[in-house]
Design a protein that fits this description.
Layout lengths: L1 H27 L3 H55 L2 H10 L1 H4 L6
Helix pairs in contact: 1-2
């Protein structure tokens, strides 16, 4: 996460440098519209890339969390199945009657 912070800081500083350079160039240039038509494309791409960078980082973090949660759920399910094998049939029927929502089939996949 610390490397992501450094990358974020570097991107922010680079963007500020681009804006400062553009303003400085515009101050020395007589035809600001012509300058903006040249630099506007670069600024537009930079403005589009910055959020993409941050959202991609968030997506990676979310995917890792989802994979960890899925792995944990599989481990819990495996433990529950193992425990179920140790329960007597009479006790299993009692539990099924007391907690039918646990044994309901989920069709969501």
């Amino acid at each position: 996460m610390e490397s992501n912070m450094w990358a974020s800081t570097l991107i922010g500083l680079a963007f500020l440098a681009l804006v400062a350079f553009t303003v400085r160039l515009a101050a020395d240039h007589e035809d600001v519209e012509q300058l903006w038509s040249i630099v506007g494309l670069i600024v537009g791409v930079a403005v589009g890339v910055i959020p993409s960078f941050f959202f991609a980082g968030q997506a990676d973090v979310s995917e890792k969390k989802a994979q960890a949660a899925e792995k944990k759920a599989e481990e819990v399910e495996k433990g529950a199945r193992g425990l179920a094998l140790e329960v007597s049939p009479a006790r299993a029927d009692t539990v099924r009657q007391q907690y039918p929502e646990i044994f309901a089939v989920d069709s969501r996949g």
